[in-house]
């Protein structure tokens, strides 16, 4: 039996159309995009076409797109690059940020910066009053993710951006989990910098981008041959960049269908989870359509994830990029969730190819595994 994949927030399968666009640059067309010969010129043209595709997907101009090797690199680039050109004050990040934003902010303390955390409420939404309070002190950068990778909570980035700008702070948002799931418009969000990534939208691993306001002054993260207008040196990963562009074009084209399909599955799942007495985190707030994050009292999340995997369902216990830690989700703790309940957290994140029949089978399997685990717990007691 083939395992059903319910972990699309971690990574997604490469779409066939994306692979088709990439193949020539993986086999026959192997030119370096900085070379002057015909191979190099073809590679350069492909990179610039992909740049336009990414820009069109996020409502930006192509000259605002800086390609990176990942969303993690783009987030590090934003934090380090923006702050390196400013006098040290404070960096504000939300308490639910991905580690590839929060840890770079902490690292900047070695250069005289203060890293402070913005509170969220029980629905995983930014506490605007707390942000206002923090902004009373001089602030260089505010970074708040558009959509949370665990709960799926969507933040009002345009309002947060406006408030940050009023206090002369630069604004960055990690939109990795938003792209392809909800509309993403760089201008409407009113941010100075925004991170997006390829492998979350059916594109290849190894490609991301930082979208930059053309007026922003930013220090390169990588120095070398001067690629990406001197902002990100290193020979371009042409095939992955081409795939990223193709994936962006498809994501925008299929956005409405993705929304309708995955939201209907999530609603069905949430109804079934409620009948099983699950606690669904952040369900009273606005969420991306494909994500449900839940727990059951007295059931360990890692144990349940392993049990479901053995029964043919791939789900997650939180963020795949934070799997080196055995601590409960920092997102749930920031929301005020009890630590014991947080240890039980399981995330389901749907893709466009998931079906209602799969969800029905999942709920039946989940009910069976819960009964088995509860029985084992009772015997052990």
Structure characteristics:
Aspartate Aminotransferase, domain 2; 12% strand; Aspartate Aminotransferase, domain 1; 3-stranded antiparallel beta sheet; 13 helices; 381 residues; alpha/beta; 7-stranded mixed beta sheet
In short:
The protein is an alpha/beta fold and 381 residues long. 41% of the residues lie in helices and 12% in strands. It contains 13 helices and twelve strands.
In the residues, how many domains can be counted?
2
> What's the rounded overall pLDDT mean?
95
CATH superfamily of the largest domain: Type I PLP-dependent aspartate aminotransferase-like (Major domain)
Separation of termini? 34 Å
Using the coordinates above, name the CATH class of the largest domain: Alpha Beta
Uncertain ranges:
none
Radius of gyration: 21 Å
- The appropriate CATH architecture of the largest domain is 3-Layer(aba) Sandwich
* Record field, number of beta strands: 12
Please report which band the strand proportion falls in: under 5%, 5-15%, 15-25%, 25-35%, 35-45% or over 45%: 5-15%
Tally the helices.
13
Main sheet, how many strands, which sense, barrel? 7 strands, mixed
């Amino acid at each position: 039996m083939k395992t059903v994949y319910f972990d699309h927030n971690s990574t997604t399968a490469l779409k066939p159309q994306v692979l088709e666009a990439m193949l020539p640059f993986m086999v026959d067309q192997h030119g370096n995009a900085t070379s002057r010969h015909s191979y190099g010129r073809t590679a350069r043209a492909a990179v610039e076409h992909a740049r336009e595709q990414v820009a069109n997907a996020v409502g930006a101009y192509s000259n605002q797109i800086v390609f990176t090797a990942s969303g993690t690199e783009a987030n590090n680039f934003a934090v380090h690059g923006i702050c390196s050109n400013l006098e040290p004050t404070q960096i504000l990040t939300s308490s639910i940020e991905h580690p590839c934003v929060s840890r770079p902010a902490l690292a900047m303390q070695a250069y005289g910066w203060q890293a402070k955390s913005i509170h969220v409420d029980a629905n995983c939404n930014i506490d605007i009053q707390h942000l206002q309070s923090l902004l009373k002190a001089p602030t260089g950068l505010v970074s708040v993710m558009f959509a949370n990778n665990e709960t799926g909570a969507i933040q009002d980035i345009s309002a947060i951006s406006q408030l940050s700008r009023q206090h002369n702070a630069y604004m960055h948002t990690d939109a990795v989990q938003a792209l392809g799931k909800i509309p993403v418009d760089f201008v409407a969000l009113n941010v100075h910098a925004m991170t997006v990534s390829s492998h979350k939208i059916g594109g290849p691993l190894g490609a991301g981008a930082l979208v930059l306001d053309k007026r922003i002054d930013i220090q390169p993260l990588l120095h070398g041959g001067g690629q990406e207008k001197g902002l990100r040196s290193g020979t371009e990963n042409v095939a992955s960049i081409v795939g990223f562009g193709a994936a962006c074009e498809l994501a925008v084209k299929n956005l409405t269908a993705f929304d309708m399909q995955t939201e209907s599955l999530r609603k069905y799942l949430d109804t079934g989870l409620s009948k099983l007495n699950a606690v669904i985190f952040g369900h009273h707030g606005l969420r991306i359509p494909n994500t449900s994050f839940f727990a059951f009292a007295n059931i360990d999340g890692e144990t349940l994830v392993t049990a479901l995997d053995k029964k043919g369902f791939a789900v997650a216990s939180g963020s795949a990029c934070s799997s080196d830690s055995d601590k409960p989700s920092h997102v749930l703790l920031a929301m005020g969730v009890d630590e014991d309940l947080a240890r039980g957290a399981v995330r389901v994140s749907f893709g466009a190819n998931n079906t209602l029949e799969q969800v029905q089978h999942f709920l039946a399997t989940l009910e069976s595994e819960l009964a088995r685990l509860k029985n084992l717990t009772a015997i052990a007691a």
